[in-house]
Amino acid sequence: MSTLKNSVQLMGHLGQDPEVVNLESGKKLVKFSIATNEFYFDNSGEKVTNTYWHNIIAWGKTASFIETYVKKGQEVLVKGKLAPRSYETKDGEKRYITEVNCSEIVPTSQKA
């Protein structure tokens, strides 16, 4: 059960092509976001859709796979863990973000 303490699985569509960053250290980083949808019916019987965007990052071999095989609009299954971090803007403001650090990805469809 210890592996379930920080485990995330999401299925959604990519909002844009993955952004590839080749670091000076030789490591590869890929960033992208996926949209997941939640549906329900309100009190008047109208269908309501909520869309949530999730920031995803991947490193190494997983990043190389994503760079080659994953594109905007494609539906994917992502497995990973939540990775909160903070950064400082150019204006000196501290910002906080939570990303999913992707360890596995499975394309479930071709580009939409």
UniProtKB/TrEMBL annotation:
Recorded hits in PROSITE patterns, A to Z, give: SSB
Q: Which Pfam families match?
A: SSB
InterPro entries documented for this protein: NA-bd_OB-fold (IPR012340), Primosome_PriB/ssb (IPR000424), ssDNA-bd (IPR011344)
Record-linked Gene3D superfamilies: Nucleic acid-binding proteins
> What keywords are annotated for this sequence in UniProt?
DNA-binding
Q: Single GO molecular-function term?
A: DNA binding
Quaternary structure and interacting proteins, as annotated: Homotetramer.
This one is known as Single-stranded DNA-binding protein
**Organism the protein comes from:** Psychroflexus lacisalsi
